[in-house]
Amino acid sequence: MQPLAIVFDLFGTLLDIASLRATAARHTADSAAFVATWREKQLAYAFAATIMNAYEDFDALTLRALRYAVARHGVNIAAPDLELLAAQWRSAQPFPDAQPALAELRRRG
After folding, report:
1. What's the rounded Cα separation, in Å, for the pair 51 and 54?
2. pTM (2 d.p.)
3. Nearest to 85 by CA among 105, 67, 99, 103
4. Exposure string for 73-108, b = 16+ CB within 10 A, e = fewer
């Protein structure tokens, strides 16, 4: 019997969030710390929303966490660039060892 769904821990397991550092480096000298703060706040907002049973779209949480990281690190990023930077989560690159499995899943439809 084929499974109806397969669930993954996407960010940090299949997709390498460190790939966001290159984009963040255009805006801050310490992109590793910036992305770490961003991810920590993103997770905190997601956990809080879950605990409160107050669903919020992942993209909205990501943008709100980005605004927090910008303020915390004293970075000046224009609103259109915030949207572009937040959108990078949708194109994070897979870890090399995850690529074959993802390709096989895609092949199987």
Report:
1. 8
2. 0.82
3. 67
4. beeebeeeeeeebbebbeebebeeebeeeeeeeeee
Per-residue pLDDT tens digits for 17-41: 888 898 899 999 999 999 999 999 9
Coil, strand or helix at 52: coil
For residues 66 and 82, is the Cβ–Cβ distance under 8 A? yes
Q: What was the pLDDT predicted at 47?
A: 93
At 25, which amino acid appears? A
Burial class from Cβ neighbours inside 10 Å (0-12, 13-18, 19+) for residue 46 reads middle
Distance of CA 4 to the CA centre of its chain: 26
* Backbone φ and ψ of 56, nearest 5°: -140, 135
Cα end-to-end distance, the chain, whole Å: 15
pLDDT over threshold 90, residue 45: yes
Please give the C-alpha separations between residue 69 and each of 7, 10, 12, 87, in angstroms, as whole numbers. 29, 21, 19, 15
